[in-house]
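Our platform keeps sequence and structure together, in a single record for each protein. Such a record has a labelled line for the sequence and another for the backbone structure tokens. This encoding replaces a full spatial description with a residue-level series of whole-number codes. Below, we set out a record of this kind in full and without editing:
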Amino acid sequence: MNFILIPGAWMGAWVWEPVTSRLRSLGHHVHPVTLSGLTKDVDISDVGPATHVDDVLSILEADDLRDVVIVGHLYGGIVAGQVADRAPERVAHTVFVEAFLPHDRKSMLDAYDGARQREDELKLIAENHGRWPPPDITDVANEQDLSTEQIQWLVERFVGHPGRTVSEPVILNRPLAEQRATYIACTLGGHWVSDDVTAMRQEPNWTFRTLHAGHWAMVSAPDELVALLAEVASEHG
């Protein structure tokens, strides 16, 4: 089975290393992605929501990948949902791991509670030259399922995220509910209880799985996450 793994904000393909190696050992073809602007000291002025969608579409097309399970984590869910929308003939199933969901004409920051919180994030982006700053070690340490070493590993590799990709609206050609999708709810996280995720529980094309993990399940619970992804592949690939 072909997997494309899309990281959340502030991260690159490196965050999927524990999952990538395990999926490959099961015989799957795995393509972890580092999206444009997610390396240090690069110009991000032209990096918007469509840029990250095109990053993934170019992989699908260059390798002529079909029957793909595309996996999006946190912010990566915004990208994964758009890619599945744009290339339904190539994407067999979309998996959202503790992820934000894309909604037509809305940005990722629109999912935040309250205008004040969105304004605070926009201010941070402006103050950091267009990059959305990553959480510091104190914030990440609040994740109760991460070891001290795992926290350090994440924080040392985080980079500021291209701000336009979270602040500008995305475009979907079809309702998100029409996609064949699985949502993996990380019970120590928080996105899975949001109104937009809860609403998708009623959709016949969507299934839900739970994982006892926090925001970074690929780091804290890679074996359990791989088991769920392999299950999705066998059911929907």
About this structure: The first helix runs from residue 17 to 25.
